[in-house]
């Protein structure tokens, strides 16, 4: 071969190799819009965690104590934080948030800031520390720990004046210094109104946006616990879903605004919105009983395993985390009916979503960004592999082909949220006698986000098709799985 031709051939081979290499390491999509922080990503992955409401209200049979009942009323006879933690672990909870102080002002830890605390109760002859005991049980059994500290304090004489804010911040500092790290810290939204206030028995109003200096409160928490997620106040890192009934809207954007008015707009909170300037994912807080605190009259009204399953599918299954409340009783225990129902639900959940039917299928896509971002990545359970389309694709499609007709009634989808949230609607169809038919479901197929579960009437087919409409940016899908969640017995 003449030397010139040889050189040309070598150059051509080199160019082809370069093109192949470029295709194989196609560029990571550039996010359009807000993306989650590392703390937020870790929090998304928790999915379900527990609330515990326990305090003077438990002994007064109330939801909102006035702040006047003596501290001596707090008298649990058989309190066992390890029983709480073991129960919560058995029902799949990844963490727990305790009401260190509710609106009545009674503190469950021995604080220097007020006499209105466990020190002056019969519990362990004043030597007890419920916050510390729960914190220790969590560390021992590997459950994440968080606290709720009500800003509104119906006991404190200084409430409504500057003096109280210093007390509130000191309480946060005590708690953070002694019991951090926290995975989440809760500033409740109920604020001001009537109360005991050191015997004044009056109504006090405050301007929540400025009164508590929430930025300083957050900084105190972050000094000791830099990864703590913040609920409520003016500087949250997650948002309330806008109701306490366990309802997240099917349309669920992790994007929202930091504007304080909008942080209190219950309608907008229930959906988020695609143009939000901040990544503020939703948390669904709901109690396993009608009330937050324990009331004997509600013993027959504990949510059943199937109600808990619906709650899960309508919270975690709609791109929100589930904060499920347990009401500890006067003994100091999670009642047996509540724990039995929650554990049964968890077992049902594990069995419903354990056998991913897509594992034996092959998958093809209408657009792929290159080998590294191939469609088969949606079948792999690793946090950093995902299918991505080429830029500018607003309609994307995946088709799964099964080796034999397969029955299923639920699909679980996850966007690759480290690069944001893109999908504004999608559809699920299956092949029946040579035609694509839509699955039969009540769920509206709009957003996906961190996780979306669609349950439908059982289908049997050897092909499944998913179509996605993208709001902006590039579609990045982390995972798709399919299940037969309601198996015939
Ligand atoms: C509300 C409070 O007023 C309730 O008592 C309860 O603690 C709930 C989780 O938050 O705002």
CATH class of the largest domain: Alpha Beta
SSE pattern: HHEHHEHEHEEEHHEEEHEEHEHEEEEEEE
**pLDDT averaged residue by residue:** 95
Beta-strand content: 15-25%
**What is the terminal separation in angstroms?**
74 Å
* Cα gyration radius (Å): 26 Å
Q: Could you name the CATH topology of the largest domain? A: TIM Barrel
Tell me which ligands are bound.
beta-L-fucopyranose
The total count of helices amounts to 11
Q: How does CATH name the architecture of the largest domain?
A: Alpha-Beta Barrel
Low-confidence regions:
18-24
Shape: globular
What is the domain tally?
2
CATH superfamily of the largest domain: Glycosidases
Tally of DSSP β-strands: 19
Strand order of the largest sheet: 7-4-3-2-1-12-11-8
Structural class from helices and strands?
Answer: alpha/beta
Oligomer: single chain
Helical content class: 10-25%
What is the gist of this entry?
With 489 residues, this protein is α/β, with parallel strands linked by helices. It has helices spanning 3-24, 38-44, 56-60, 81-90, 130-141, 162-179, 208-211, 214-224, 266-269, 305-313, 336-352, and strands at residues 48-53, 95-101, 144-149, 184-186, 193-195, 202-204, 229-231, 239-240, 255-256, 278-279, 282-287, 320-327, 362-365, 387-388, 395-415, 423-432, 435-438, 452-470, 476-483.
């Amino acid at each position: 071969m003449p030397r010139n031709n040889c050189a040309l051939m070598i150059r051509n081979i080199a160019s082809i190799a370069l093109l192949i290499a470029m295709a194989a390491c196609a560029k990571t999509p550039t996010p359009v819009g807000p993306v989650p922080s590392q703390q937020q990503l870790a929090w998304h992955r928790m999915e379900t965690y527990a609330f515990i409401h326990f305090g003077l209200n438990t002994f007064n049979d109330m939801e909102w104590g006035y702040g006047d009942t003596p501290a001596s009323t707090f008298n649990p006879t058989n309190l066992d934080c390890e029983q709480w933690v073991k129960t919560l672990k058995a029902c799949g909870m990844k963490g727990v948030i305790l009401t260190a102080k509710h609106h009545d002002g009674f503190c469950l830890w021995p604080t220097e800031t007020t006499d209105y605390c466990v020190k002056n109760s019969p519990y362990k002859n004043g030597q007890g520390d419920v916050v510390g005991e729960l914190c220790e049980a969590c560390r021992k059994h590997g459950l994440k720990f968080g606290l709720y500290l009500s800003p509104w304090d119906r006991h404190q004489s200084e409430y409504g004046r500057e003096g109280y804010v210093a007390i509130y911040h000191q309480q946060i500092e005590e708690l953070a210094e002694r019991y951090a790290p926290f995975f989440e810290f809760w500033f409740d939204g109920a604020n001001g109104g009537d109360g005991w206030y050191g015997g004044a028995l009056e109504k006090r109003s405050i301007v929540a946006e400025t009164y508590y200096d929430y930025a300083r409160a957050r900084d105190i928490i972050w000094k000791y616990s830099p990864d703590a997620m913040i609920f409520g106040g003016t500087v949250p890192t997650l948002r309330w879903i806008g109701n306490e009934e366990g309802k997240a809207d099917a349309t669920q954007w992790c994007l929202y605004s930091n504007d304080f008015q909008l942080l209190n707009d219950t309608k907008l909170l229930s959906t988020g919105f695609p143009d939000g300037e901040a990544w503020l994912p939703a948390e669904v807080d709901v109690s396993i009983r009608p009330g937050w605190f324990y009331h004997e009259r509600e013993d027959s009204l504990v949510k059943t395993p199937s109600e808990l399953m619906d709650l899960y599918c309508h919270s975690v299954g709609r791109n929100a985390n589930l904060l499920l409340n347990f009401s500890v009783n006067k003994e100091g225990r999670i009642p047996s009916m509540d724990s039995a129902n929650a554990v049964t639900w968890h077992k049902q959940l594990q069995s419903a979503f354990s056998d991913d039917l897509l594992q034996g299928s092959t998958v093809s896509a209408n657009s792929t960004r290159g080998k590294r971002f191939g469609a088969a990545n949606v079948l792999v359970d690793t946090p950093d592999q995902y299918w991505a389309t080429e830029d500018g694709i607003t309609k994307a499609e995946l088709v799964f082909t099964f080796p034999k007709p397969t029955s299923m009634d639920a699909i679980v989808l996850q966007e690759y949220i480290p690069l944001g949230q893109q999908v504004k609607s999608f559809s699920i169809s299956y092949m029946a006698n040579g035609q694509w038919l839509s699955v039969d479901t009540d769920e509206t197929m709009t957003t996906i986000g961190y996780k979306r579960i669609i349950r439908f009437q059982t289908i049997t087919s050897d092909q499944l098709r998913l179509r996605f409409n993208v709001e902006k940016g590039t579609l990045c899908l982390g995972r798709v799985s399919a299940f037969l969640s309601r198996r015939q017995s």
